[in-house]
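Lecture notes, part 5. Sequence design as translation. It can be helpful to think of inverse folding as translation between two languages: the language of shapes and the language of residues. The source text, in structure tokens, appears below.
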């Protein structure tokens, strides 16, 4: 079974050509449009491999998986792809089949940095090949990272009635924050302070990600760029639940002084210090 022939494209076809052909054939073979369900499944499976650069490369060059340049007996070059169960080895004798299943469905869960701190339950709806609408509650745990994938077995597509349903793969996407930068389980923020307060020392109020107020003592003579650490106010670790560190970087703000009398006093003070 040649995947390129299924999609009707050349082996050097571009991703855009593959996608265009996939859309055309999906409409042609869709069961709801009177198409053949088996052909529809083949198109879906072929596209799942050829639209993924890693899977396509493994399909085009199965020998690269073996440093000896040829396939070892019993080794499946399509392992992890929808065509794993089509693999035959050696002398035409078919390897033990794995039960085929319908294709997986890939969705995206958009969350904020605050959701990473608290965890988030999302209700997601998606369409199956038979036209039904599936509703599932996705539990994104506290400490989840950008691009983490949550898998729900048996909640994928159901287009082929003889095969079990595929899996649902939900990829987490964490939106960027205006005031916070994430570094693993740590959080980094910037606090702008007047240069005179840095010279004299001061106490500032830090608002945490979850809107708590903390006092931070800035010692006399603190330089711009100084980083203070506050343990226990970062993000929770996904495995342990222990929160990381909040880092506060000081950024000096220069006052705009146009009064010549004040400028003269500053100059006089500078001369006295020197």
């Amino acid at each position: 079974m040649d995947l390129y022939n299924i999609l009707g494209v050349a082996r050097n076809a571009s991703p855009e050509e593959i996608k265009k052909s996939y859309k055309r054939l999906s409409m042609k073979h869709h069961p709801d449009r009177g198409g053949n369900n088996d052909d529809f499944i083949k198109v879906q499976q072929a596209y799942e491999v050829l639209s993924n650069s890693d899977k396509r490369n493994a399909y085009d060059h199965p020998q690269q998986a073996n440093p000896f340049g040829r396939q070892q007996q019993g080794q499946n070059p399509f392992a992890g792809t929808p065509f794993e169960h089509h693999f035959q080895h050696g002398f035409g004798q078919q390897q033990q089949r794995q039960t085929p299943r319908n294709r997986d469905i890939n969705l995206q869960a958009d969350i904020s940095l605050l959701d990473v701190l608290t965890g988030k339950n999302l209700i997601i709806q998606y369409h199956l090949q038979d036209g039904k609408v599936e509703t599932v509650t996705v539990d994104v745990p506290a400490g989840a990272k950008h691009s983490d994938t949550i898998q729900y077995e048996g909640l994928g597509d159901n287009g082929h009635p003889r095969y079990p349903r595929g899996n649902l793969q939900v990829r987490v996407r964490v939106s960027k924050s205006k005031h916070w930068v994430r570094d693993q389980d740590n959080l980094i923020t910037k606090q702008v302070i007047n240069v005179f307060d840095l010279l004299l020392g001061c106490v500032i109020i830090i608002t945490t990600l979850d809107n708590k107020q903390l006092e931070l003592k800035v010692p006399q003579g603190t330089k711009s760029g100084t980083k203070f650490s506050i343990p226990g106010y970062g993000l929770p670790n996904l495995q342990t639940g222990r929160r990381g560190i909040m880092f506060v970087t000081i950024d000096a703000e220069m006052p705009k002084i146009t009064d010549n009398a004040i400028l003269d006093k500053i100059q006089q003070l500078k001369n006295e210090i020197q």
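The translated text above is only one of many valid answers, since several sequences can fold into similar shapes. The domain at 3-94 is CATH 1.10.287.110 (Helix Hairpins).
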